[in-house]
Write a structure and sequence with these properties.
single chain; 515 residues; alpha+beta; Glutamine Phosphoribosylpyrophosphate, subunit 1, domain 1; Rossmann fold; 2 domains; seven-stranded antiparallel beta sheet; 33% helix
């Protein structure tokens, strides 16, 4: 007879091995990620109906580690008490200890892996956030940003509320606590109706596991099943890691309530929109390539972006090379469409990681050299075509172009599998200020000159939509949240003064049109 697998020990062993390979220790509380591109949002995971809830949650968070590396946490419920463990650092740094996982007792748990877009990186901001309410405890894990958080917070503080964190996610707790409804689910729905912006949340209460997605579906959330245990996750890749079955995507404006006996109830707290407006960056940048988001294979979509880019911006080069790792699928698609040879002109070290360092530009550029090395035998004397998924500040592209030329490249060309980023984000992406966005106020030729390459081209907005099978873009009813390219923000931006906001958007629109 086969001995049952001890999931807690398995999870502990798995995470120890993963942590040994990619170990990074943090030396300060206030840390900045060396990533001169777009920084991730957060990942949420939850499970109910299994005695291995905390261990499965730790494994799920490991699969979602790409969504945030600053901090991670797990909250569990054992039928009487909540147990929480929240730490700065990677999942494998803190949840590879079997004793830690064993201490998170219960058949239900939620977890969170964090990159801070709202609130500084200190332990009090690490999620899941927990509070005791009049009808029992509640723990919340949130991905996204709320665009009226500052306005709501100010109003609540004036009415006597005391906040324990600087994270906008605490509003879910505060508003739920003040609701006059009786059940936990009705209290939560009452809070959701007061909130604007982007969110996918996993909520743990004594009554069950609750998931909710914002009315436009800007942030992703999926429902899974593992031998009768219900699972919530930001991406399907976490389901794959633990052997769970994908059930469906949580709908925009939907709340689902999962109980330990396998029951699932659903209700719409907001009218179903004509169509969802998933953040387009989930598909082209943030999600893992092996995930399926709202029915779209991320890997296949990114290859289609590369093929469309080859149609719009052909190049006379000797071979195509990705800027690894995020540019790989688009580079494959470009090479297939253009009949150019695919080579690895750059080799990325996977043992460097996204190091936590001070944000001086010289140090940031030095980090590029540690992460990417030119493959001299491939590029020497050749015309190299690099494919990237985006260009934000341009500093990484500039350093890579210089490395390739120093390694003997005859020509260096760059093609980008998304349009120029012209506008800031307010929904959970830590975009640089408009002063740092290389495309603001510059023509493509000026960007080409700045990064020092022989030619440069971006995928068009219509080309982006056509690659997704949605195009050309319907200006009256776009299929995605694409404001970083278009300036079309799909929700009110209450926290940003109307006059100032309109002036900024008008100025950026003028600069975008002039370029």
């Amino acid at each position: 007879m086969t001995k049952p697998i001890d999931i807690t020990r398995y999870a502990s062993s798995f995470l120890k091995r993963a942590g040994a390979k990619y170990r990074r220790r943090q030396s300060e509380l206030h840390l900045i990620i060396d990533k001169p591109k777009l920084n991730e949002e957060c990942g949420v995971f939850g499970v109910i109906g299994t005695p291995d809830a905390a261990a499965l949650t730790a494994l799920g968070l490991h699969a979602l580690q790409h969504r945030g590396q600053e901090a991670s946490g797990i909250a569990s419920f054992d039928g009487k008490r909540f147990h929480t463990e929240r730490q700065l650092g990677l999942v494998s740094d803190h949840f590879s200890d079997a004793a830690t996982l064993a201490g998170l007792k219960g058949v239900s748990a939620i977890g969170h892996t964090r990159y801070s877009t709202q609130g500084e990186t200190v332990l009090r901001n690490v999620q899941p956030l927990y509070a005791d309410l009049d009808r029992g405890g509640i723990a919340v894990a949130h991905n996204g940003n709320l665009t009226n958080a500052r306005t709501l917070r100010s109003s609540l503080v004036r009415r006597g509320c005391i906040f324990q964190s600087t994270s906008d996610s605490e509003l879910f707790l505060q508003l739920t606590a003040r609701s006059h409804h009786l059940s936990a689910v009705d209290k939560l729905i009452d809070s959701l109706k007061q909130i604007e912006g982007a969110y996918a949340i996993a909520v743990l209460t004594p009554d069950g596991l609750i998931g909710a997605r914002d009315p436009l579906g800007i942030r992703p959330l999926v429902l899974g099943d593992l031998n009768g245990a219900s699972i919530l996750s930001s991406e399907t890749c976490a389901l794959d890691l633990i052997g769970a079955r994908f059930v469906r995507d949580i709908k925009p404006g939907e709340v689902v309530v999962c109980t330990s006996d396998g029951k699932i109830e659903s209700q719409q707290f907001a009218p179903t929109p004509h169509h969802a407006r998933l953040c387009i960056f989930e598909l082209i940048y943030f999600a893992r390539p092996d995930s399926i988001i709202d029915g779209i294979s991320v890997y296949e979509l990114r290859k289609r972006l590369g093929r469309k880019l080859a149609e719009e911006a052909p190049c006379d080069a000797d071979f195509v090379s990705p800027i690894p790792d995020s540019g790989v699928p688009a580079a494959i698609g470009y090479a297939q469409q253009s009949n150019l040879r695919y080579e690895m002109g750059l080799i990325r070290s996977h043992f460097v990681g996204r190091t936590f360092i001070e944000p001086q530009q010289k140090i940031r550029e030095a980090g590029v050299a540690r992460k990417h090395s030119p493959n001299r035998s491939v590029i020497e004397g050749k015309r190299v075509l690099l494919i990237d998924d985006s260009i934000v500040r341009g500093t990484t592209s500039r350093k890579i172009a210089e490395m390739l030329r120093n390694a003997g490249a005859k020509e260096v060309h760059v093609r980008v599998a998304c349009p120029p980023i012209l506008y800031p984000d307010f929904y959970g992406i830590n975009t640089p200020s408009d002063k740092e966005l290389i495309a603001v106020g510059r023509t493509v030729e000026e960007i080409r000159d700045y990064i020092g390459v022989d030619s440069l081209a971006f995928l068009s907005v219509d080309g982006l939509y056509e690659a997704m099978g949605k195009g050309p873009r319907d200006k009256a009813s776009p299929a995605f949240t694409d404001h970083c390219f278009t300036g079309d923000y799909p929700t009110p931006l209450t926290d940003h003064n109307e006059a100032d906001r309109d002036a900024i958007i008008s100025q950026l629109s003028f600069l975008a049109e002039s370029s």
